[in-house]
Write a structure and sequence with these properties.
Distance between the termini: 58 Å
Number of strands: 6
Structural class: mainly alpha
Strand order of the largest sheet: 1-2-3
Number of helices: 22
Helix content: 55-70%
Shape: globular
Order of helices and strands: HHHHHHHHHHHEHEEHHEHEEHHHHHHH
Largest sheet: 3 strands, mixed
């Protein structure tokens, strides 16, 4: 945590220094400061600036650094810069990028621009790009890099070593060499560590590892991340549906997936997009959030409608208006705890059809126990506060019912939404809040209406 705080402070210090230099008109100094910074740090600074400052800084960036900076920007900010660049500028900026990074950017460009850029690439790079673009961007094939080193299983390690020495450099994050047969089908992999310490007269087949199962190209990127986590991998091969090697995925690609999924989970719950720009223009941000506010308004109106059904009861016992938010709030918190746990379990592949009912039963039990515990606390408090035992009894009963319902809904909503192909991280919270509010108000006010007639 201290390292994270230090990093944040360092970034803010750089931003303050840049702002001070720009305010004093020392643009040459700003240009020198940017030139001394790594591309990832420049991208972070650009994301941390309001639009006007961001535009000025981008103009001061060296043209040869633009491509490296673009690949580190979030999609929203990157799209802003890409739209402002003509074809020649794009070609210059993207010329030195790795195939997987270039494919990611091309997927964000209009098709007509992509068709202008592809012919400018040499034939080998163009074929590699087209191979990556042929797969959906959220699959193993969509995030893979086609830059691989392959060898045949029958050659000796000495031949492999001499072959490697002919390369000026190895692809980034190369921890192993992929082994293929004559039809280019994946056979195994030869780790560099094993290559270095083994007898040079051994064949690749004798030294290679076959315990790493290749990833099918259509594997969802979220499953790719889980695979890397479970196996502690630096890289993994990707094959098509015939078993032919088409590329490899490296740990830096997986880190991007993990970050995107974390952003999606955090921002999606409040209706924000994964790559929401913190400094997006006022109207753009307002438009994006208006839809979500409208949905929440509809759910709030539904809860208000339920309250309106018991208007006469509330007028008769004013204390109900004071106490009923407690029932809904407690249900909302309990349901959110279960919802978050189940969404996480589904994302990690821990919860599925084989154990979903066990999880449901456990969560209903947890809801019941917590309901009984806190119903006593809340019931006694309400009875003492308003000097009426019946009110405390009704409060306790409503709390037990709502916490059990909230736990059940929290466990059932994510798999239900998954079946409908709706992301539970986005829609689950809204549905759960609506249910706990409506059930909480209806049960509490309904019991009150029954006993206070």
């Amino acid at each position: 945590m201290s390292n994270l705080i230090h990093s944040s402070q360092s970034a803010q210090d750089k931003l303050h220094a840049l702002n001070n230099a720009m305010e004093s008109g020392a643009l040459v100094q700003v240009k020198h400061m940017l030139a001394s910074m790594p591309p990832a740090d420049i991208a972070h600074l650009l994301e941390s600036c309001p639009p006007h400052t961001r535009t000025i800084l981008w103009k001061l960036v060296e043209p040869e650094d633009e491509g490296d900076i673009l690949q580190h920007l979030n999609e929203d900010v990157r799209s802003h810069f890409l739209r402002a660049m003509n074809t020649d500028q794009l070609l210059q900026a993207l010329a030195e990028l790795d195939i997987d990074d270039l494919a990611d950017i091309l997927q964000e460009l209009p098709n007509r621009i992509t068709q202008q850029i592809l012919p400018s690439l040499d034939q080998q790079d163009r074929l590699r790009i087209e191979e990556v673009l042929a797969f959906p961007e959220d699959t193993a094939g969509g995030i893979m890099n086609t830059d691989t080193i392959t060898v045949r299983p029958h050659i000796t390690l000495d031949v492999v070593l001499r072959y490697l020495r002919r390369h000026e450099k190895l692809p980034e994050n190369t921890d192993s060499i992929l082994v293929v047969n004559r039809r280019h089908k994946y056979v195994g992999r030869l780790s560099l560590a094993k290559l270095v310490i083994s007898d040079p007269s051994m064949t690749v087949r004798e030294a290679m590892e076959t315990d790493i199962t290749p990833l099918p190209a259509l594997t969802p990127s979220s499953d790719v991340a889980k695979f890397f986590e479970r196996r502690d991998l630096v890289s993994a091969p990707v094959v098509d549906d015939t078993g032919k090697l088409v590329g490899r995925i490296t740990v830096d690609d997986v880190l991007d997936v993990i970050r995107e999924e974390a952003d999606h989970s955090l921002l999606g719950r409040v209706g924000l997009e994964d790559d929401e720009d913190t400094f997006a223009p006022l109207l753009k941000s307002s438009r994006r959030r208006a839809t979500w506010l409208g949905i929440n308004l509809m759910t709030a109106l539904l809860a208000s409608f339920v309250i309106g059904l018991f208007q006469s009861t509330i007028q008769q016992v004013v204390a109900l208006a004071v106490l009923m938010p407690i029932v809904a709030s407690m249900g909302g918190i309990a349901g959110t705890q279960t919802l978050t746990l189940v969404i996480r379990g589904i994302a990690l592949g821990q919860i599925g059809s084989a154990n979903a009912y066990w999880v449901l039963g456990r969560e209903l039990g947890v809801g019941l126990l917590n309901g009984l515990l806190w119903s006593v606390v809340v019931g006694v408090t309400a009875a003492w506060w308003f000097n009426e035992a019946l009110l405390g009894y009704l409060m306790g009963c409503a709390l037990v019912i709502n916490l059990v319902v909230a736990a059940g809904c929290g466990a059932l909503i994510p798999p239900f939404l998954n079946r409908l192909r709706i992301d539970p991280a986005i829609a689950g919270g809204v549905i759960l809040t609506t249910v706990t509010d409506v059930v909480g108000f209806f049960v509490f006010l309904g019991l009150a209406a029954l006993f206070y007639q």
